[in-house]
């Protein structure tokens, strides 16, 4: 059996009157669904370094802090069935972070050139996230 792809996913929480989760949609690709920042871990990175990098790459937010890992999910990739292991982290964003913005992904990763419409939404969520990314939200403290 092949080794699982090691990944991270970020629950970036902004605390106001109610907690809010950072999500994004691919501009021009509605079929991708609403997501949280997530992606692979590079060979030289720790899981915490990877989650901070993915948040910055996919949303442009750099003023976030890692609170804690909250779950490890061993679900295979929904489309390919390939094995993967995703560690979900809780992060905190500044309460004065923008409500919504567009971010153009730079670099040479698979998301390079894409545009993401980012926003904070109240928890509990009104709609499910793509790829069951909301499965561990109940563990947010």
User: What is the general shape?
Assistant: globular
CATH class: Alpha Beta
According to DSSP, the number of beta strands is 7
What's the CATH topology name? Answer: Nucleoside Triphosphate Pyrophosphohydrolase
Number of domains: 1
Largest sheet: 7 strands, mixed
Mean pLDDT: 94
Order of helices and strands: EEEHEEEE
The Cα radius of gyration reads 14 Å
Helix content class: under 10%
- CATH architecture tag: Alpha-Beta Complex
Write up what this structure looks like:
The mean pLDDT is 94. The protein starts with a strand and ends in a 19-residue tail after the last strand. Helix content is 9%, strand content 39%. The protein has one helix and seven strands. β1 (5-15) and β2 form a beta hairpin. It is globular. It has one domain (5-139): Nucleoside Triphosphate Pyrophosphohydrolase.
Short description:
This protein is mainly beta. 9% of the residues lie in helices and 39% in strands. The protein is built from one helix and seven strands.
Q: What secondary-structure arrangement, pairings included, does this model have?
A:
Elements: E1 5-15, E2 19-26, E3 38-40, H1 47-59, E4 64-73, E5 84-93, E6 100-104, E7 115-122
Parallel strand pairs: 1-5
Antiparallel strand pairs: 1-2, 1-3, 2-7, 4-5, 6-7
Features:
Nucleoside Triphosphate Pyrophosphohydrolase; 141 residues; seven-stranded mixed β-sheet; mainly beta; 39% strand
């Amino acid at each position: 059996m092949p080794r699982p792809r090691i990944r991270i996913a970020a629950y970036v929480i902004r605390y106001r009157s109610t907690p809010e989760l950072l999500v994004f949609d691919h501009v021009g690709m509605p079929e991708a669904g609403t997501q949280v920042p997530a992606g692979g871990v590079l060979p030289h990175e720790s899981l915490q370094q990877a989650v901070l990098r993915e948040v910055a790459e996919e949303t442009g937010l750099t003023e976030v802090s890692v609170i804690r890992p909250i779950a490890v999910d061993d679900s295979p990739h929904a489309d390919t069935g390939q094995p993967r292991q995703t560690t979900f982290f809780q992060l905190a964003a500044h309460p004065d972070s923008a409500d919504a913005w567009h971010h153009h992904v730079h670099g040479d990763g698979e998301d390079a050139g894409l545009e993401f419409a980012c926003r904070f939404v109240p928890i509990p969520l009104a709609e499910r996230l793509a790829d069951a990314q909301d499965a561990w939200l109940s563990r947010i403290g």
